[in-house]
Amino acid sequence: MRKSRIAEKYVRVVQDMYERSRTVVRCAVGQTEEFNVEVGLHQGSALSPFLFAIVMDQLSEEVRQESLWTMMFADDIVICSESREQVEESLERWRFALERRGMKVSRSKTEYMCVNEREGSGTVRLQGEEVKKVQEFKYLGSTVQSNGECEKEVKKRVQAGWNGWRKVSGVLCDRKISARIKGKVYRTVVRAAMLYGLETVSLRKRQESELEVAELKMMRFSLGVTRLDRIRNEYIRGTAHVGHLGDKVRETRLRWFGHVQRRETTHNTLSLALNPIG
C-alpha cells in the first residue's frame, strides 16, 4: 500500500484490521472453534478485492507486459506469446516473481492453448513439469477455441439463454401477464444472457440461425403457442415486441465498434483493429 502511495493513516487502519484476527468455519454439520488467521485476506470483506488488486499490481509490476500480451483479472492471468519458448520464459518469470513474495502458481489450474499449431512444436513446461494442453479455455465468461471457431461459445450462449428463461418462466408462462410485459422481461433477462460477449464474436449464418431457433422456441413457450397453431414467427415477434436477434447482434457490434473508434489513438483496444496506429 505504501508503494502505491496510499496515505499512511489508511495503511495503519488496514494493519489494525488484520492484527490478531480470528475466524470460524460454518458448514452443514455445525461450526468450528475460533482459530487465528495468519495468511490471506478476510473472506467476504468488501475491502479484500481492493487489497488483492494492490498486491497483484505490485507483484506483477516487474514481469507483466503491455495489454494483449498479458491480461489480468483478479488472480486469473492470460499470457500470450508467439512461440513456445517465449511462453515458458514468461511463465518462469511469473513463477519466480510470485513465489519470491509468498504466492504460488497453481500447477493444476495452469493450461496452455496453441493457435495454428505446427507439427513438432513440443509442449510447454514449468520447472520441468508439463503444463496441461487444451483445445479451448474459458476466460471472463467467454470460450476461446484453438481453431478460431465459436461453436462452443454459441452453444453456451444458447444454454445461458435457457437458464435465464427457466429463472423467469413463472412470469413468461403466466397467462395473466400481457405479451408486451413478457417481451420486456425476455429482452432484459433472457436475451441479455444469450448475447453476452457476442459483439466481439464473428458469427456465421448457421450459428446465428441456432440462436434464432432457440429464441423463437422460448417465445412460443412463453406465449403458449406451438407450431401446430401455424402462427408465423413475425406475428410472435410483433406480439411480444421483440425484434430479430440477428439485428440485435449487429446493433451491439456497431455499438462496440463505436466505443473502440472513440478511444484515444494510444488505447490498447485499437491494437485489434485492422489498421492499428504505431
Automatic annotation (TrEMBL):
GO terms for molecular function: RNA-DNA hybrid ribonuclease activity. Transmembrane segments: none annotated. Residues 1-144 form the Reverse transcriptase domain. Its EC number is 3.1.26.4. It is an enzyme of class 3 (hydrolase). PANTHER family: ENDONUCLEASE-REVERSE TRANSCRIPTASE, REVERSE TRANSCRIPTASE DOMAIN-CONTAINING PROTEIN. Belongs to the beta type-B retroviral polymerase family. HERV class-II K(HML-2) pol subfamily. This is ribonuclease H. It comes from Hemibagrus guttatus.
